[in-house]
Specification:
alpha+beta, Rossmann fold, 3 domains, 6-stranded mixed β-sheet, disordered C terminus
């Protein structure tokens, strides 16, 4: 049984798991509605490009990137840098050349901004900007630094570019959806300020539910976790969370403290989860470093390149590896960070173990 199969034994996903997915249920004769298969139609990658000093490299073009999936070359479908409007490369390639169609737009120009964009015949609303989920540890680990953490998160919320939407969740033993995904920063900050410290920490359970919420969305998706200590109440391992986030194209950033850093099992798990999804784990010794970590995450989200492609024919029906490279000697010196693969399809039988946590979710931010 794969890790994703174990995930689905704990959590019922009522919507597709991948960006632009096709869901193919089992035949009705089997009468097993909780079993399903998902197939990727479009794969999205978020890629950070930096130099040897960690400075972000901007201004790269679609032709500077090469993507291979299971060593099979892929053709880019869309390209986006930061919060710019995505470019439909397939439509640009198929449109008439400017000299044969006077007045036609150049292929290199981005689509005009607007409430929705069309990529290869698929209408996609609001792809510019990111969908950012903040997951805040309100367990009893937070008693001594609660107010400082709230201040750091509040500053982070206000710093996120207007093009992005933000949601604020908190967790201790259960998950609380204090502020749903919205461009309204005031409602999100109000959710942050309404939180109170709780009991034990079920980080991995709560993070899995947050990944499930993010998986339903199109476009760039990121989860920013603030954790002040290890997980002592979850029923699932961090590896399952990491694999589901990988397979749904969701980036996980983790800002933690020296309490978690001093616990080697938790610190190693945080680093593995973030790295697997193309994110970063930070360990802050004080509230100033916490603010610096959030600022670094904001900069990362602002400078990501978002690439997508329709996978070429491939007989592999399980885990598919992804490798992204830059073309040309002048670009080979730069460093790339992104996820390294995804699982193509899964089937599952669902049990209600984790759904009890979901049933206690709150939209008010209080428990």
């Amino acid at each position: 049984m794969t890790r994703l199969n174990r995930i689905f034994t704990c959590l019922k996903l009522c919507t597709p798991l991948f960006l632009f997915m096709a869901v193919a249920p089992h035949p009705a004769a089997q009468d097993e509605p909780s079993h399903f298969r998902v197939n990727v139609v479009l794969v999205q990658l978020n890629v950070a490009v930096t130099d040897s000093k960690g400075h972000y490299i901007s201004g790269l073009r679609p032709e500077d990137f090469v993507i291979k999936e299971d060593n099979i070359s892929q053709k880019l479908s869309t390209f986006e840098e930061g919060d710019a409007v995505p470019r439909d490369l397939l439509a640009a390639a198929s449109s008439p050349a400017p000299d044969s169609a006077p007045g036609a737009a150049k292929a290199s120009e981005p689509d005009p901004p607007g409430p929705e964009h069309t990529f290869a015949g698929v209408t996609i609303p609001g792809l510019a900007g990111a969908n950012v989920f903040i997951l805040f540890d309100t367990s009893n680990y937070m008693y001594r630094s609660f107010v400082f953490a709230q201040d750091a998160i509040t500053d982070f919320v206000r710093s996120i570019p207007e093009a992005s939407k933000v949601a604020f969740y908190s967790y201790s033993r259960d998950l609380s959806r204090a502020a749903s995904l919205s461009p309204d920063r005031f409602s999100v900050v109000r959710g942050v300020r309404s939180t109170v410290a709780g009991d034990d920490a079920a980080l991995y359970n709560s993070l899995l539910l947050t990944v499930k919420d993010a998986a339903q969305l199109r476009g760039r998706k990121a989860i920013v976790v603030f954790s002040n200590g290890p997980d002592n109440a979850s029923s699932i391992p961090p590896e399952d969370v990491a694999e589901l986030a990988q397979s749904t194209g969701t980036i996980i950033y983790i800002v933690s403290t020296r309490e978690a850093k001093s616990e080697p099992v938790s610190s190693a798990a945080f680093e593995r989860m973030s790295k697997a999804t193309g994110g970063i784990a930070y360990f802050a010794s004080n509230w100033r470093q916490e603010k610096e970590a959030f600022s670094s995450i904001k900069e990362d989200l602002t400078h990501l390149y978002t690439l997508s492609y329709y996978p070429q024919p491939n007989p592999n029906r399980g885990w598919r590896s992804i490798k992204v490279q830059l073309v040309g000697k002048a670009l080979e010196k730069y460093h790339l960070r992104t996820r390294d693969g995804y699982s193509l399809q899964q089937q599952s039988v669902v049990t209600p173990e984790i759904e009890s946590a979901s049933a206690s979710d709150s939209d008010s931010g209080s428990r």
